[in-house]
Amino acid sequence: MSTGREFSSYQRKVINRYYDNLDTIVVTRLGEIVTDMALAGGDEKKLARLWKRAEQALERVKGQSNEVSQIIDQRDVEALARFVTKVSKR
To answer: What is the DSSP letter of 42?
Structure first.
């Protein structure tokens, strides 16, 4: 019996690059969510799904817990867009 999964050298490099670029991936995902929210208009069902996706993505942003919780509680698309812009400039 094997005790764990053995990855090839190539697979380890791909996995490491993914985690090295995770912040960029999350910011890109949040930007796409903000765009989808702006295009959703008044469709409450779609907006609810998008806010759930945004909340999941925001959980991965480190060191922003107070600001993130305010954005989620208020469900302010403009505040989310400003936050994404601020985080992407880092």
So the answer is: T
